[in-house]
Structures are given as structure tokens and as C-alpha cells.
Specification:
single chain, alpha/beta, Aspartate Aminotransferase, domain 2, Aspartate Aminotransferase, domain 1, 2 domains, 7-stranded mixed beta sheet, 5-stranded mixed beta sheet
């Protein structure tokens, strides 16, 4: 596949990064289930370790199967390069590892997946990193937080989990760039099929490939995608990329690798020293899943719209947070950033609060009660008792995971069957 030609999204989803295996002619990407790779000579080995030659050394740093997925997701996002990781949380760690240092801080929307809130506000403190969590709708608060001299990045979710809030990416990118820092966008919930944050000014995109990209609930994984457009040398905030790296004999990543600096650093330092590499089998499953991402997303969204409309009219439902519904405050942003679609993960409030929420999830038969999203199978969860359980009540409410909240991830089943399942479950409330 010519990398210079222009191809549509569906074509890239099937072909980007891949080619028939030159040794066997196998059309599917092989699973290179190996830890390490033979060097042709001592000189070649030295050149690889010095980052003077591209190639494979050890599968913690790079693997041919994983590399295909990296190229594919980068192509789907319109990015310059990508780093695959063991999970979405590992992707967040790796992206920030390059930018941060003890005493540094970053700004994040307070409307995030509960696990991210915990990672940012608690675990990262052990590295000496601080996170200022703000309401991203309050632009004055965002500006004030970004103005801190220690700030290194602004982080948001394009389509927030679980509440379905759609971030104003263009505005947030402008604010981040005005402060001389990159905008990092977790695009997991939207997928690159519905939203491409780089087109709105984002600099780094994060994915949990575990979700829609893999699509079948079978493979853990994460991805850091770099736009290649951020000027890391515009200030002195990012010495990992702009100052000599002692471990590579004084090499300066941005000077040497230019628009691939973040990507190369993520492999050569991040994966080398932190080690959250993606397994080749998981990369293979994600590659297979990516091939059907466009058609799956169409069905996901079609089903979600039908289920949301049903719930919006149900007498035992207090509210529905789905941007595709008339009157939703984020409907205009869905038109702008998601092509008029609102994704397939959304929340609603069941009358009766916390106890009713627990009863509802236990009464469903077709919906699976589990902590995942983006599966071909429809999933249901009560976030306040699961994914957001570690948060304070104020944090959970701010994140859209209050006591009455139910999160649905709508799959590819017949929509009428999903509606019937919810109807019978709510009959017992």
C-alpha cells in the first residue's frame, strides 16, 4: 500500500501499516510471538542501540505486529507516529512521562473516566506530578490553571466517559497553545471514525484500544498518537525532547527526529524504562478489530440512538444524557466534532437513586453487567458502585457518575431486543 496515496477511512482501517508477509505471502499480519531479534552484525547492533538505524531489538521496545497497529491507528487519526502500550492507562502514563518531571503539573478536565481521575489525582503524585482538575466549560478556570509556570499539558476526553460530555476541542487547543503546552485528548469513546482531534488543534491523542478499536472485548491495549506538529522547542518546558539525553550519548530527540521526536522517545525511553509494552497477540486482535471499525461504529450509533429515545420516554427514567437527543446541551458539539453522531456510550438516571440503579443492572438479561465499553455486546454498569467508587461524592458527581447514574455501552445486537431487556428490567423497579 503506497503511503503517499490518499485513501479513505475504510481503506486505511483495513490496509494502513500492513502488507503481505514477504517471506510467506501471508495476507493477514503475522503474530511475531518473539522476545528478541537476531542482529546481522556487531555494527548493526550498535547502530540500532544508538538509534541510528530503524529496526527491532527486543519486543519491549518494538515488535513487527505491534508496529502495524501503531501505523494503522496513526493513519486513522491523521497523526505522524504512535506508541502502542499494554493498556489505555499505560498510554496516559507514557504520554505524560515524556512531558513531566517532579514538581511539574498538568491541567485536566474534571469530566473523565473514574480510573483516570484516580490515576491523575492520586497515583501520579507518587512521581511528584500534580494535576489541576477543572471544569473545562469554565474557560477562565482553564486559563488560570494553564498560567501556572509548572503546567506542561492540558488533558480532556473528546467524548467523556461516562457522562457523554463533548469537549470543545478547538477552544481548548487554542488555550493550551496560548500557554505553550500541548492539548492531549483521550479519543477512546468517540474513536477516530467519529472524531479526529488533530483536525481541531489537538497535539496528542490517547486511546484505550481495548474498547472500540479492538471492539470485541478480547484484547487489552493502549495507544499514544502524536500529530507531529507541536513545537517542543518554543519554550524550556520539555527538556526530555529538547536537551541532550545522557543514555544516548547526548542525542537531542527533537533536533534529531523532528516531528517523530515524541514517538521515538516513547519507544526508546518510555517503553525501555517503564516497560508497558503491548503483547503481539493483543496487537493482532486489535488490527483485526480495526478493519471493521467503520461499519461497527455505524451500527453502534444507530442502536444507541434508538435505545436513548426509548429511555427518554420511559416514566421510570429521570433523565438521559445522550447528545443525539433534542435539547441536549452538547448536540451542537456533536454536529461539529462527531459528524452529527453522539457515540454509543451514554448515561441515564433511574428514579429511585442508588438502590434502584443496583437493582436495574442485576435485572438485565441481554445486557452484560461489567466494567468495559466499546464491545460488540451491549454492556451495563452502575458507575457509582464500580468504576467511580474510589472517588469522593463531589468528584463522582462532577464526572457524571452520581448515585442514580446508569452507564450503557450499546452493542451490535438487534435494537428491539435491547429495548425489551431494559423494559423488563425496569418493570421490577
Amino acid at each position: 500500500m503506497s503511503q503517499n496515496a490518499f485513501y479513505g477511512f475504510e481503506t486505511l482501517a483495513i490496509h494502513a501499516g500492513a502488507a503481505p508477509d514477504p517471506a510467506t505471502g501471508a495476507r493477514a499480519t503475522p503474530i511475531y510471538q518473539t522476545t528478541s531479534y537476531v542482529f546481522d552484525s556487531a555494527d548493526e547492533a550498535a547502530s540500532l542501540f544508538n538509534l541510528q538505524t530503524y529496526g527491532y531489538i527486543y519486543s519491549r521496545l518494538g515488535n513487527p505486529t505491534v508496529a502495524v497497529l501503531e501505523e494503522r491507528v496513526a493513519a486513522l487519526e491523521g497523526g505522524r507516529g504512535a506508541i502502542a502500550t499494554a493498556s489505555g492507562h499505560a498510554a496516559q502514563l507514557l504520554a505524560l512521562f515524556t512531558l513531566m518531571a517532579p514538581g511539574a503539573s498538568f491541567v485536566a478536565s474534571n469530566k473523565l473516566y473514574g480510573g483516570s481521575v484516580t490515576q491523575f489525582s492520586r497515583t501520579f503524585k507518587k512521581f511528584g506530578w500534580d494535576c489541576d482538575m477543572v471544569d473545562a466549560e469554565d474557560l477562565d478556570a482553564v486559563r488560570e490553571a494553564l498560567a501556572k509556570p509548572t503546567t506542561k499539558a492540558l488533558f480532556c476526553e473528546s467524548l467523556a466517559n461516562p457522562g457523554g460530555v463533548i469537549s470543545d476541542l478547538e477552544t481548548l487547543a487554542s488555550l493550551a497553545h496560548g500557554a505553550g503546552v500541548p492539548l492531549i485528548v483521550d479519543n477512546t469513546m468517540a474513536s477516530p471514525y467519529l472524531c479526529r482531534p488533530f483536525e481541531w488543534g489537538a497535539d496528542i491523542v490517547i486511546h484505550s484500544t481495548t474498547k472500540f478499536i479492538s471492539g470485541h472485548g478480547t484484547a487489552m491495549g493502549g495507544m499514544v498518537v502524536d500529530s507531529g506538529k507541536f513545537d517542543w522547542a518554543q519554550n524550556d518546558k520539555f527538556p526530555s525532547l529538547t536537551k541532550p539525553e545522557p543514555a544516548y550519548h547526548g542525542l537531542v530527540f527533537y533536533e534529531t527526529f523532528g516531528d517523530l521526536a515524541l514517538t521515538v522517545h516513547g519507544h526508546a525511553v518510555g517503553l525501555r524504562d517503564l516497560g508497558p509494552a503491548m503483547a503481539p497477540m493483543n496487537a493482532f486482535l486489535a488490527i483485526s478489530g480495526a478493519e471493521t471499525l467503520p461499519i461497527r461504529m455505524e451500527r453502534h450509533v444507530e442502536n444507541a440512538a434508538k435505545v436513548a429515545a426509548f429511555l427518554n420516554a420511559h416514566p421510570k427514567v429521570a433523565w438521559v444524557s445522550y447528545a443525539g437527543l433534542d435539547g441536549n446541551p452538547y448536540k451542537a458539539r456533536a454536529e461539529k466534532y462527531l459528524g452529527g453522531k453522539a457515540g454509543s456510550v451514554f448515561t441515564f438516571g433511574v428514579k429511585g437513586g442508588y438502590a434502584a440503579g443496583l437493582k436495574l443492572v442485576e435485572a438485565c438479561d441481554l445486557f452484560s453487567h461489567l466494567a468495559n465499553i466499546g464491545d460488540t455486546k451491549s454492556l451495563i454498569l452502575h458507575p457509582a458502585s464500580t468504576t467511580h467508587r474510589q472517588l469522593t461524592e463531589a468528584q463522582a458527581t462532577a464526572a457524571g457518575a452520581g448515585p442514580d447514574v446508569i452507564r450503557l455501552s450499546i452493542g451490535l445486537e438487534t435494537a428491539a431486543d435491547l429495548i425489551r431487556d431494559l423494559e423488563q428490567a425496569m418493570a421490577g423497579l
